[in-house]
Amino acid sequence: MTMDTGLAALLGASIGSLTTLGAAVVSGRAQARAQHAQWRRQHRRDAYAAYLSALHDRDVAMDAILDELRSHRPDLPEVDEKVRRFIALAREVHRAMEVVIMEGPPSVAEAADRVAQASGDLSEVMRRMVRKAHAADATDMAQDRAAASERERSLYKAVADFRTRARETLDRAR
Question: Taking the C-alpha atoms of 22, 28, 34 and 36 in order, what is their torsion angle to the nearest 10 degrees?
Answer without folding.
Answer: -130
